[in-house]
Amino acid sequence: MSITQLNETHDQNLQSWVAGANDPASDFPIQNLPLGWFRRRQSVENFRPGVAIGEQIVDLLAARDLLPAHVVAALEHCRDGLNPFLARGNALSSTLRAALSALLRRGSAQQAALSACLVAQADADLGLPCQVGDFSDFFTGIHHATATGKLFRPENPLMPNYKWIPVAYHGRSSSIGVNQYFPRPKGQVKSPGHDTPVFQPSRRLDFELEMGVVIGRGNALGSAIPISEAEEHACGMVLLNDWSARDVQGWESQPLGPFLGKNFATTISPWIVSMEALAPFRLPFSRDANEPQPLPYLESAANRDHGMLDIDLEVLIATPAMRAAGLPPARLARSNYKHAWWTLAQTITHHASNGCNLQSGDLLGTGTLSGPVPADAGSLLELTSGGKSPLTLPNGESRTFLQDGDAVMLRAHCERAGFRRIGFGEARGEVLPAL
Ligand code: MN
């Protein structure tokens, strides 16, 4: 079965006996069923595999007697994250999805048995869903690439390679987390007009609104991944905030990098939304005839037909003053993954095109997914024109870059007539004072 194919688990009329899943505003209806890694809050039990449904989590190992034996066997191999399960490929997660879809449906004969396996999300700590061996961050958001390029090269914002090659850098995996609290990074900064750099806390701390794809089945070293098979290696997607210290990044990245300007923290959302759940939200990939066309290894009929994804994105901020006053987070920008220059399949195929082996749990960031208009940029660097035009928040505060105590939330959802809306939950991170 192709992961872009629709099946009965996508039926918009399916309802769950878990009441919260039927709330139209829920990110986790029975049509979503994302995988995560959790334990009961403040317990000492091992983290374990779970699936989000409404405001609950299905404890998959507690439900082992209700699930297919070969699915349970793979889940039982998961000790430090979902990697062993994800490595088995999308057919296995599809089997789990089909089983849970039936078990969680209104009228299921197993309701009583499965009810005993639910843990409220409010009573759970969510961990990193898998061990991330390697993290690569692409630069597929052409509106971001253009807007940030303009800050430095107004006449020629895009580098000559941009429209030909999916540009990326190798990032740091040890500092990836969910629901992160991290100190403002320190680093070398050289201000214009000064002869020497200084080592100090970053004054230009920023977020980046991105998506990430999690690799399921890997490829052997020395083997490439043809674009026709690329999405068989993607198990699903998460939100990704690629926190960036712009002052550190600017001084150090001449010409290598980014390095310390980015590797101090990267926050992802805790639930992996499967490619199967995303199947109803595919879009064609197209290139204007007057633009460079993808080289043959990045080109396929399937990629043209449905290589792109329609995922609505937003970024919100909650400052300490807003939280103290009980105010809701303020939205800074909205965007959509569909504006990217390259598709997810193209980034996977390009990554392995030299024989580089991708491994289960690897994370590939899309790069900042700014919208087509400046007000919908996915970073403060763009929203404030490089820090020159402060933003005014609804409570009257202003920001150029992030201040201590600021929390940033990324959210995303998919909507299409004839299908149930699904969401990604939240990637939340909070800036602590520098050490
Ligand atoms: Mn980035």
What's the arrangement of secondary structure elements?
Layout: E1 35-40, E2 48-53, E3 56-59, H1 69-76, H2 83-86, H3 90-104, H4 111-115, E4 118-120, E5 124-126, E6 135-138, H5 142-152, E7 168-170, E8 176-177, E9 180-183, E10 186-189, E11 198-201, E12 205-206, E13 209-215, E14 234-241, E15 244-245, H6 246-252, E16 266-268, E17 273-274, E18 282-283, H7 301-306, E19 308-309, E20 312-318, H8 320-324, E21 330-336, H9 344-352, E22 363-365, H10 380-383, E23 391-392, E24 398-399, E25 407-414, E26 422-432
Bound molecules: manganese (II) ion (MN).
Question: Which of globular, elongated, flat, extended, rod-shaped describes the shape?
Answer: globular
Low-confidence stretches: none
Mean pLDDT score: 97
Distance between the termini: 51 Å
Q: By CATH's scheme, which homologous superfamily of the largest domain applies?
A: Fumarylacetoacetase-like, C-terminal domain
- How much of the sequence lies in strands comes to 25-35%
